[in-house]
Amino acid sequence: MTLSPGYPADVAIPQRAAEGIDGVWVNGVLSYRDGQANGRREGRFLAREGDLREGFR
Fold first, then answer.
1. Distance (Å, rounded) from C-alpha 43 to C-alpha 37?
2. Against a cut of 0.90, is the pTM above it?
């Protein structure tokens, strides 16, 4: 599949849990376990400036 800049497209990208992550605790609350989010979102979004991908190139 090729996506061209400037052209609209509907793309479905399957999501799957990362392997090796057993659980995620946020502010003392278990929010992810056994490959599933449980709906508890005790944290808050921290916006960043710039492109985070720059550090990985």
1. 14
2. no
